């Protein structure tokens, strides 16, 4: 008979939910959901990426990513630009408000990293390494 304490994914579910709670308040101030914030992080790293590149980095399919991009476009943080060379290619570019939002978002990671204040660097690196390994299994 299945047992919650034996379910291998339950701790990941709980941790994910708790992280979402930590991000909720600071992201509400920016008017973003966590998935929207991830898209913005990708674009703040490198503006003008194709939809497929963003999806690959976030490991999201176009059915999940497209609605996120539409909402970000509706609130004027990004714009879609069709390639003049190949109309099938769509690049996502930050608008001025989208670029400006980066400064307001700078303290968010520090708030989340505060969870790990009592961790040794090696523990945090081990956790990150194990999570990367788990993700690579999918």
UniProtKB/TrEMBL annotation:
GO terms for cellular component: cytoplasm. One of its GO terms (biological process) is response to stress. Signal peptide: none annotated. It is found in: Cytoplasm. Residues 1-136 form the HTH marR-type domain. InterPro entries: HTH_MarR-typ (IPR000835), MarR/SlyA-like (IPR039422), Transc_reg_Sar_Rot_HTH (IPR055166), WH-like_DNA-bd_sf (IPR036388), WH_DNA-bd_sf (IPR036390). It holds the Pfam family Staph_reg_Sar_Rot. Keywords: Cytoplasm, DNA-binding, Transcription, Transcription regulation. One of its GO terms (molecular function) is DNA binding. Its main location: cytoplasm. It comes from the Bacteria. This is DNA-binding MarR family transcriptional regulator. It comes from Mongoliibacter ruber.
């Amino acid at each position: 008979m299945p047992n919650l304490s034996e379910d291998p994914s339950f701790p990941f579910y709980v941790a994910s939910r708790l992280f979402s709670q930590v991000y909720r308040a600071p992201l509400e101030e920016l008017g973003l959901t966590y998935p929207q914030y991830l898209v913005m992080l990708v674009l703040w790293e490198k503006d003008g990426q194709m939809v497929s590149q963003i999806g690959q980095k976030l490991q999201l399919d176009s059915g999940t990513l497209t609605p996120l991009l539409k909402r970000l476009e509706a609130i004027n943080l990004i714009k879609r630009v069709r390639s003049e060379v190949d109309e099938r290619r769509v690049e996502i570019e930050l608008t001025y408000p989208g670029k400006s939002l980066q400064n307001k978002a700078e303290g968010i990671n520090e708030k989340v990293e505060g969870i790990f204040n009592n961790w040794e660097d090696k523990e945090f690196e081990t956790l990150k390494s194990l999570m990367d390994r788990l993700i690579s299994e999918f």
